[in-house]
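Backbone shape codes:
***
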Amino acid sequence: MLVFMKLVGSRSNKPITDKTAENICRAIRDALAGRKSAQEMLAVEFNLDTGLKQVETEFYIDPVFHLPALLIEADNQPSLFYKVMYATWQEDLLVVNANLLVWRGRTRLILYLLGPNESLIPEYLGQRIAESVRQRLLGQSF
């Protein structure tokens, strides 16, 4: 597996300490090597059982890429990205591309998706998926 990643880390718009940066790098290497699960490492830092606040989701077929897309917008919150990826995994979705915009305390993610077995997702099912992901992110059970 070949993974390229550029990660810029800060806490309250201040650079993280060298020790924290070292811990993050080690955690990423361990997770990619399969020595530790990401959930075990993140559980120390975040409460993964709590839901997010003010989450909006929308499903549409992107007119440029002709791929199903899920738009997720929420306030910047700890563990937001992990919870979004965990929710997409629970729905058995494959993210083929992701766009991220962080602006004025809000995060907007556009996830280009394929369904199980790399199939296209029809509009009617996409609307259900968007609502299901929203409920999962809010911490509400079905």
Q: What stands out?
A: The chain has a mean pLDDT of 84.
